Amino acid sequence: MKKAIPWLIFALIATMACGLSAPATQPSQTNLETAVAETVQALTATAPLSAVTEIPATEADGQLTPDGTPLQTAEISFLIPNSVANDATSSMTTEVEYPYVNPSLGDMPQHLSIKFNLYAVSNSVYTPRIMIFRADEYSQYSEMTASTVKVLQTTQYIDGQPLPDELDTNFTVQIHALDFQNGHGVRYLTQVMQNFGPITNDALFYYYQGVTSDNKYFVQAILPINAAFLPADGNIDTPVPADGVPFNMDDFPGYLDAVAQKLNSTETYNFNPFLDALDEMIASMQVTGF
Fold first, then answer.
1. Number of separate helices (H) and strands (E) present in the chain
2. Is the model's pLDDT at 30 over the cut of 50?
3. Is 248 domain-assigned?
4. Cα torsion at 269, 270, 273, 278 (round to 10°)?
5. In terms of domains, do 117 and 160 share one?
6. Do 240 and 112 share a structural domain?
7. With contact defined as beta carbons under 8 Å apart, do 161 and 143 qualify?
8. pLDDT by residue (tens digit) across 175-195?
9. What's the whole-model pTM score?
10. Residue 13 lies in a domain
11. Which of 98, 125, 288 lies closest to 208 in space, CA to CA?
């Protein structure tokens, strides 16, 4: 952007030279220097260098749009950053979704499921997806879903507060309140702890839960995420990276605390995908409903 003003000056002078009829006499060097000086003064007065910033965007149909793939259906619209996935497909389904890992309660209420293609992480046990339920129908599925919806409808999480018990899991890090275009919620990183095992890249995921402002729809996102210092999986023969936390069965709570501290202090750009990119995708959502 620092080259913008000299380029504009050159273009302005060229336009002045080409766009006017030939003058009777050529302008003197002094007059030209004065014109340039006045141009620089006018440009810097209206657009100081410190205020000129580049917008990460691509041009489409004559408009600037963020760097990503817009997805729009009758039920929802949002932007998929290029660093997250290539695109996504949506469908209505009754398949059982997290936090349930078995169909013992039967099919879930019909809901929208959006699954991502060419997602940044390919080694996860989870399929990256966003789900939209009618809040009243989701609440009727079980006591757990009812309490989840109720706390989101009646409480807006504020950063720094304890995560409500209704939303908490056995392992939660990077907790952050996050609004979307017509709703609010909270995101965090978590791993389902079915036994005593390490925190791994194939099981860690970004988890979002929220509700629309009219309380009609419940929004859930499960998006796998990796950190370079975590082992790839829970196999006992899988090496722990040099800067990782060795698994310690003898002090499992201490191990979880050490991993949590390391994950909480990890910068957004050291995750794959970037935490900021996932937040931006969720924040861009507009839920229309069905």
1. 6, 14
2. no
3. yes
4. -50
5. yes
6. yes
7. no
8. 999 999 999 999 999 999 878
9. 0.77
10. yes
11. 98
